[in-house]
Amino acid sequence: MDSKGKGKATDATSAAAADQDLLPWVEKYRPVTLDDLVSHKDITSTIQNFIDKNRLPHLLFYGPPGTGKTSTILAMARKIYGAQFRNSVLELNASDERGIDVVREQIKSFASTKSVFGAKAGFKLIVLDEADAMTQAAQGALRRVIEQYTKNVRFCIICNYVNKIIPAIQSRCTRFRFNPLEPDQVESRLQHVIESEHCNITPGGKEALLKLSRGDMRRALNVLQACHAASDHIDETAVYNCTGNPHPEDIEAVLKSMMQDEFTTAFNTIVALKTAKGIALADMISGVYDLLASIKLPPKSRIYLLDHLADTEHRLSTGGSEKLQLTALLGAVKIAVELSQA
Ligand SMILES: Nc1ncnc2c1ncn2[C@@H]1O[C@H](COP(=O)(O)OP(=O)(O)O)[C@@H](O)[C@H]1O
Ligand SMILES: [Mg+2]
Fold first, then answer.
1. What pLDDT digit, counting tens, does each position of 317-337 carry?
2. Which key words tag this protein in UniProt (predicted)?
3. What is the pLDDT, as a whole number, of residue 118?
4. pLDDT at 7
5. Ligand 2 ion: Cβ-proximal residues, 5 Å cutoff
6. Rounded CA gap, 129 and 113, in Å?
């Protein structure tokens, strides 16, 4: 990392600053207070209501990555417990612990030690992150642990896929869905980081960044940091280069060929472009997704195409052949075009 923009400092503070410099921005800019959070105010206010009435249930947060699930519960906990935060909150990651027995032991020793409770909070909080990584059996054991300590502990269970959580746990929690962030929400937080880090980014670069992040704030910050490290001037091309994502112009050419050219011509054009630019079909598909929004298509064609894109994406992710999937996708586009002319 460069060190420009740093003034003179004592050894101690420059060492601290260097430490800060090494931090991933997702950590450096993790929201500390509820005010730092740019989204899901409805969820925080609902939970605040529970707390005010002294009726906090167990919580289940679910939704795609980078939408603030972990940040939200930690910011809430900081507000509830203040100086008692450390004694009152246990953060566990279900995916990197050595099994439910370790989790159970940690929970047990945490739950059974008395802490100086905050004035309003007569309970401790256990945050169990990435709970969908737990096996069914481990979840069964967790469910009994939850029951056992319900008197003085509240759980906040966090996962990406709510369907991977067993019904017995789901039914004991109040569920909150975290949707992807709106572009303007991502932008407002991004702007804060851009200013703090003195990033030299063009409006086009920022737009590309917003598009690529698709409501995932972690992704937005990671890409921004990588671009900032790679170049002094971040424009649209720099963003696409840095992520290895195809440039929208290339995707436009692909889509145009798919829709207008005869099957074999389109197939060959796309394969040539894929080879020349080193674009994987999966990345091409996510690019097509982004473009579809700005293309005029009747609803039935759009829905048909979206379904097929999702199918193709799924088959690619489970090891489907690119050639076969491209053929299938091309067929789907042709049908979508026919549907729109019918
Ligand atoms: N709502 C938000 N407001 C501000 N920053 C956010 C928000 N959501 C995510 N972030 C940023 O993205 C990073 C990842 O957020 P995190 O809470 O860990 O997401 P999740 O747990 O949903 O995967 C955080 O460090 C923070 O910098
Ligand atoms: Mg998280």
1. 888 888 899 998 899 999 988
2. ATP-binding, DNA replication, Hydrolase, Nucleotide-binding, Nucleus
3. 44
4. 40
5. 70
6. 22
Q: Please tell me the predicted confidence (pLDDT) of residue 21.
A: 67
Instruction: Return the ∠ at Cα 317 (arms to 130 and 244), rounded to 5°.
Output: 90
Domains along the chain?
31-177 (3.40.50.300), 182-243 (1.10.8.60), 248-341 (1.20.272.10)
What's the pLDDT at 210? 95
Residue indicated by tokens 């940690």: 106
Asked if residue 26 has its Cβ within 6 Å of ligand 1, the reply is yes
Residue 325 CB less than 6 A away from ligand 1: no
The pair of structure tokens assigned to 330 is 């091309």
Q: Name the amino acid, one letter, at 12.
A: A
Q: Is the CB of 37 under 6 A from ligand 1?
A: yes
Regions of the chain where pLDDT drops below 70 = 1-21, 96-98, 114-121
Per-residue tokens: 40: 């899901």
How far from chain centre, in Å, is Cα 172? 25
> What is d(CA 329, CA 324) in angstroms, rounded to the nearest whole number?
9
- Apex CA 158: angle with CA 135 and CA 21, to 5°? 115
Q: With a 6 A CB cut-off, is 312 part of the ligand 1 pocket?
A: no
Looking at ligand 1, which atom is closest to the CA of residue 74? 17
Give the separation between CA 215 and CA 179, rounded to whole angstroms. Answer: 8
Residue whose C-alpha is closest to residue 271's, from 325, 212, 335: 325
